[in-house]
Each structure stands twice: as C-alpha cells, then as structure tokens.
Design brief:
Elements lengths: L9 H15 L23 H14 L1 H14 L4 E2 L1 H4 L13 E3 L3 E3 L13 E7 L4 E4 L8 E2 L6 E7 L6 E4 L3 E4 L2 H4 L12 E5 L12 E7 L12 E9 L5 E11 L6 E2 L1 E6 L7 E4 L2 E2 L1 E2 L10 E5 L8 E5 L3 E2 L4 E6 L1
Parallel strand pairs: 10-15, 18-19
Antiparallel strand pairs: 1-2, 2-3, 3-8, 4-7, 5-6, 5-8, 9-10, 11-12, 12-13, 13-22, 14-21, 15-20, 16-17, 16-22, 19-20
Length: 333
C-alpha cells in the first residue's frame, strides 16, 4: 500500500491508515512505493499517525504467536491466515463471512473497510461470531464477551474509531506476546525474545466447563537454516484453572538453537480473574506483592482492579529462570 503523493487529504490518510491496519494483521507486509508516493508514516497527521503506530506495535507484540504459526505452516501446509470456514466447516454462515478471518486458531480479525462517520467519529462493521464460541475484545478485554448463538452463530454490529481494529481472542486462549516496549524496539523480529508475556484470557462463562489452557512458542536463531537440522526450541505453557482455589501455570522449554539464551524472565497476565488473588509463588517461593506495575524480571506480582473498560488482572513478573527447567507459578484466590 502506498500513500499517494501530492496534496494531503483526510480521505487518503484514512484509507492509508486502514490498509496499514489490515497489513499489520497479515503474514507479510511492507510499506514502500515509487517516486510518486509518500510512504513515510511519520509524516501522517494525527490521529492517523498514532493509529498506525498502535497497529504496528500490535503486529510486533504478536510476533511469538505469528512466528509459531509460520512454523506450523512450514510443517503442515496450513497457513497462518485462515478463512472462517476452515475452523467452522459445518456452519453455512462461515462461507458467507468473507470480510473477516482467523489468525491461527485463537484470533479473529475483521478489518474496517468503510470510512469514519463524521457525526460519531467511528466506523461500523458487522462481525460474525461462530456458534457456541465466546470472544474477548483484544483492544478492550474488559468488555463483555461476544458470543455466537447455537447453530449459525451471531452477527453483531460494532463501532470502532480510526485507532481501533476489530480483533477478538477466543475465550480461554493463551497468547504469547512481546511487551509493548520490546515490540517497539528496532529489529525486534531478528533477535531472540528478551522476555515473553503469556496472556491468559477469561474462559467462557458457566455452564461451559473450565478447560485447561495452554500454548506453545516456537523459536530458532531467526537467521540461518539451522532449523532444518532440528536447531530450534518449543516453549510449552500449560494452565490448570481451579476457580475459587489455586491455579497452576507451568512453563518449560525443550530443544536448543544457536545463541539461545540460558535464562529468560516471563510475565504472566491473568485477565478477568473473578476474585482477587491472595498469594503467588514461583517454584514454591512466595513472591512479594506490589502496589504498582512490577518491573520485568522483578519477582513480584500485582492485583489490578477492573476499571475504565479494563478487566481485573493479576500480573506476575517472574525472575529470569533457566529455559530448560520447569517454572511453575501458583496463583491462589
């Protein structure tokens, strides 16, 4: 996508921003053009500049998730971007929702393709939520879950500002993300992860059974063909939820690649916990509670109360731990 040269216009800047947002959630995306185009995003006026920065930051935050999906595509031929009917082949409506798609099994994206309404400063879009599924708004995880009705699912019309992209996470999923500051660092995609955030999204409400949650993160050196000689690692995250009691989260890495870090700090985010946590321990060692956001690798935790559209959240900043050793985090409520 290229922003046309010549006199700037609100319509052109809005279109450019929306296509940048679309590209941010695509597997491969570059922003470059010819001598008659202006593809320097820093020349965008507000609010388009901030909207573009948010989209590109979220793209980089999802790097551990997206790179893992690339490995899956290499091994199985199943691409990272999938039409709705790939995951819901028996639902007729899934074949009639071409303006949205899945990124892997846990993220639903419905890019905005209509201009902002000047009276509301938002764009409207109809999003289809598959049957018997529940979804968390990636941008506003404190909002109520969106649910798909039985049989054909549900169409829901939603409104978003120019800075927002309709992205939803399957309820109960675990997303491996980079922290925002690491996602904005130059060259983040070419380096090993200095840290990984595991974000545990709220499970579907009762009477749906509480299922153990988990995910896996693929890594290699990012530079060579060593992965063809099995030079790579998988980091496994598993969670066992016990509402009203203690939940256990385990992290362990198997495999090895050149320049693989010996240790790494992990940060755990538990979104939408129904009750406040009372204690947290890592490998049996109690962690100190903080009243402010704990620094990465500090070995502290914080309870955040729900406010302003943000959900209640427990943040656990684990101290650097050996990658190949089991890290077990126990959170009691």
């Amino acid at each position: 996508m290229m922003r046309l040269g010549g006199e700037p216009s609100t319509a052109a800047d809005e279109l450019f921003t929306r296509v940048m947002q679309f590209g941010a959630f695509s597997p491969v995306y570059t922003n470059w053009g010819n001598v008659d185009s202006d593809d320097n995003i820093w020349t965008l006026p507000e609010p388009y500049l901030s909207a573009t920065v948010i989209a590109l930051t979220n793209r980089n935050r999802l790097l551990p998730y997206r790179y893992t999906l690339s490995k899956v595509a290499h091994d199985t031929g199943v691409g990272p971007i999938r039409p709705m009917y790939y995951h819901f082949p028996l639902v007729e409506t899934a074949y009639n929702a071409p303006q949205q798609y899945m990124i892997g099994p846990d993220i639903l994206v419905a890019p905005i393709y209509s201009p902002v309404n000047p009276s509301s400063n938002t764009s409207s879009i109809a999003v289809w939520f598959p049957p018997l599924t529940d979804w968390v708004d990636f941008n506003f995880p404190g909002r109520p879950l969106y649910s798909g009705a039985a049989e054909n699912g549900s169409w829901v019309t939603l409104n978003y500002t120019i800075a927002e992209v309709p992205v939803f996470v399957r309820a109960g999923a675990v997303l491996p993300l980079l922290a925002p500051d690491l996602a904005q660092a130059l060259g983040a995609a070419g380096r090993t992860y200095a840290s990984v955030d595991f974000v545990v999204y709220p499970p579907a409400p009762a009477p749906a059974p509480v299922q153990p949650a988990g995910t896996a993160v693929y890594e290699d050196d990012g530079m060579s063909n060593g992965y063809l000689q099995d030079e790579y690692s998988w980091t496994y995250f598993n969670a066992t939820h016990s509402p009203g009691a203690c939940s256990v989260y385990s992290i362990q890495t198997a495999g090895h690649y050149t320049d693989m870090p010996p240790t790494r700090p992990y940060t755990l985010h538990l979104l939408g916990a129904p009750t406040a946590a009372t204690s947290v321990a890592a490998n049996g060692v109690p962690l100190a509670r903080s009243t402010t956001p704990p620094a990465r690798g500090s070995g502290m935790w914080q309870q955040i109360t729900a406010a302003g559209g943000s959900p209640a959240e427990v943040v656990v900043a684990c101290q650097p731990a050996p990658l190949t050793s089991l890290l077990e985090i126990k959170v009691c409520f």
